[in-house]
Amino acid sequence: MIKWTERRTQRVETPRLSTRGERQSTTKVDISGFVPELLTYLGQAAYFELGMFENIARATSIAPDLAAKEGLSAAAGRALAKHQGLVAEIRRRGGEPSEVMAPFAPRLDAFRHQTTGADWNELLLSCYLAGGLLDDFFIRLSDGLPGDVGPRVAHLLGQDAGTDVLITHLKAAIRSDAALGSHLALWGRRLVGDTLLVARSALPMDGHTSDQSRIEPVFTEIIAAHTRRMDGLGLTA
């Protein structure tokens, strides 16, 4: 069983951001050999979604006006619904959710602490970018889950996350302050590095070059989606 709390002796390399003009591979990668055991996967994903709920709830609590609070509360509810759906999958397999999630709490709590940000705008960007990237990651990993659980989990995680409200407020803030845009672009680049390290550490790989090269296209897909999110905000990835 692979635990995010384990310290690895080998150096973990973050995949490089590719240029927008670079041709991406369209070959579907078989990731069945990189997927953790089912309850391990579900525990990690469930605790991540719980953390997303807590982050968006915190953004709601410090939002500057009632309109923002209302929109963010809906997004928080959707993150909580994803968490509850994953918890239901854990229970369906006879697991106790708190016990299944517990091994991953220290690692993910530390990650959330590192990526919360210093203010409301940084927190919103973290919810949007880190949340979107890890949702993409868990959806991609679900391809390798056994039986019919993979499609169910992919459908659950792929549902509308209510992130339009995050985009709306971030775009408004960036339009009103050009310096903020440059600052958030730097913050976004830091977020992708930290988030990819968390994702990479969840994979049962021993650091062999062959494993790294086989899984690299998966991270290329995920980074491309991150770059599109940054572009959509007018930020440079």
Automatic annotation (TrEMBL):
Residues 41-198 form the Ferritin-like domain. Pfam families: MiaE_2 (PF13794). InterPro entries: Ferritin-like (IPR012347), Ferritin_actino (IPR059125). It comes from Cryobacterium cryoconiti. The lineage of its organism: Bacteria, Bacillati, Actinomycetota, Actinomycetes, Micrococcales. Residues 1-24 are annotated as: Disordered. This is Ferritin-like domain-containing protein.
